[in-house]
């Protein structure tokens, strides 16, 4: 698995997933104009902080809520009351709608 890449995993029964290895504290992920799937490093950060390296170059960030069976969206141009989520967490995949080809740099500190 590659740091910064998001994955969908199809499972047929409930279970726990774990992984081993060295934690990655920074990554640089090339995004193409359009929809891109990304993963987040071993930290929890606000969406605005996570996406700061491409501020103005993306339309929205979305994630799948498996419990509610629906997508949730963070739109940086919408009032905060319209954000379905405000943090990005390790172990979850996210879709980023990029306006242009760009590079997303994510760093975990602390």
What's this model, at a glance?
With 110 residues, this protein is mainly beta. It has one domain (28-107).
What structural category characterises the helix and strand content?
mainly beta
Low-confidence parts: none
* End-to-end distance: 24 Å
- Apparent shape: globular
Biggest sheet overview? 4 strands, antiparallel
Individual helix count: 1
Lateral strand order in the biggest sheet? 2-7-4-5
| Average predicted confidence as pLDDT | 90
What proportion of the residues is helical, as a percent range?
A: under 10%
Total domain modules: 1
Describe this structure in words.
The protein is 4% helix and 39% strand. The protein has one helix at residues 47-50; strands spanning 26-31, 34-39, 44-46, 58-65, 70-74, 87-89, 93-98, 102-107.
What is the element layout, followed by pairings?
Layout: E1 26-31, E2 34-39, E3 44-46, H1 47-50, E4 58-65, E5 70-74, E6 87-89, E7 93-98, E8 102-107
Antiparallel strand pairs: 1-8, 2-7, 3-6, 4-5, 4-7
Features:
110 residues, mainly beta, four-stranded antiparallel β-sheet, two-stranded antiparallel sheet, 4% helix
């Amino acid at each position: 698995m590659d740091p910064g890449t998001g994955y969908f995993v199809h499972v047929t029964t409930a279970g726990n997933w774990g992984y081993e290895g060295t934690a990655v504290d920074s990554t640089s992920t090339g995004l193409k104009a359009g929809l891109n799937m990304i993963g987040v490093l071993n930290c929890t950060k606000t969406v605005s902080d996570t996406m700061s390296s491409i501020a103005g170059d993306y339309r929205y960030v979305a994630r799948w809520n498996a419990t509610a069976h629906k997508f949730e969206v963070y739109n940086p141009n919408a009032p905060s009351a319209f954000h379905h989520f405000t943090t990005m967490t390790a172990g979850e995949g996210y879709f980023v709608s990029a306006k242009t080809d760009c590079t997303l740099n994510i760093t975990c500190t602390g």
